[in-house]
Description:
globular; 4 helices; binds magnesium ion; alpha+beta; two-stranded antiparallel ribbon
Amino acid sequence: VPDRTEKVYLGLGANAGDPVEQLRKAVAELRARRIILEPIALSSLYRTPPWGGIGDQPWFVNAALSGATALSPQELLAALKQIEGDLGRKPAPRRWGPRPIDLDILLFGQRIVRTPNLTIPHPHITERAFALLPLVEIEPLLADPATGRRYADCLAALGDEIARIEKMKDEL
Ligand code: PH2
Ligand code: MG
Ligand code: MG
């Protein structure tokens, strides 16, 4: 049987409700709905300061995972939105504000996708230590498919942003 799956990397985040519990539920749903298939790799959980200019909101818990998917990028996006809604996410009152769950496609194989509703690699990945740190943890040598730049180097370029991030004892 030909293998039509592709390796994808997802960024997970939450900063409302019980973030760790929400992230665990999201991973359970990704598995149960066969959206993400083995082999699956999960990063540690990290406590991260809010990024994007809205400072008056709780810190986030962030993580990353890689796994196989048989879905297309658009199908994967729709499936992630479905889980976000099922876990209690309402349409955002403000951009980059608090949310009980956020599931982002960081990378989809080596693909470059630029459509009005979906950009892959994730448009802000190289500026966000909260996305890069867990990503580099599960795949230290991973490089950006568009630029060839290693994500570990992007992370190092962010300087002391990394120092504000706390690795948690809890695991996914
Ligand atoms: N997500 C955002 C905006 N800001 N900050 C942190 N620390 N973690 C996030 O996951 C995050 C954010 C938009 O999705
Ligand atoms: Mg996001
Ligand atoms: Mg999102």
